[in-house]
Amino acid sequence: MFFWYSKLPILLISSTAWAVFQTAAHSQIIRDQTLGIEHSIVTPQEFRDLIEGGAIRGSNLFHSFLEFNVNEGQNVYFANPDGIANILTRVTGGSRSQIFGTLGVDGPANLYLINPNGIHFGNNARLDVAGSFIATTADGIKLGQQGLFSATEPEKSNLLTIQPGAFFTNALRQHQAQIRNQGNLAVGSGQGLVLSGWGGDKRPVTLDIS
User: Fold this and answer.
1) Which residues span the domain enclosing 195?
2) pLDDT per position as a tens digit, 49-66
């Protein structure tokens, strides 16, 4: 179960009249340096860009990016190593993520996209995810008693303390960012598709469009 704690409201909308997200995506997937030698590796292939590397802790795989955007017509896939059930991706820079093309996983793992600055799924956004997909503007996610995967304070993320069997206990507070969905998103049969945030009344809001 996930719990998001917020001191600022978030608005989830799906209308086409939203001036905030009129700027085109920068077609950039830029890794940051917060994971050291376990950093992500983006490899351009003939028909897609494949994201490999990352930090493995038990059945969880962690990626960290300064910017994460998928252009229209672009296909970006995360590699799914054996034994990985969850792929957690955070964006630590100051820009929202704009997903205008295909975002997928090369395997059955669940995919989590964490960007406190907002996430925009454009008209032609598509998910190729056999597992569940969760997008959130939370600051980060706690794992177990001590584990922390923070997008706003990545230097405090103590991945080395995460036990192999640890799973998510809750997510941290959210910023006043927006998640916008203009696409026709779908995931594998029987899986969950969730865009999650907070409403103006400070109660948790979950938009389940599975």
Assistant:
1) 11-208
2) 999 999 998 889 999 999
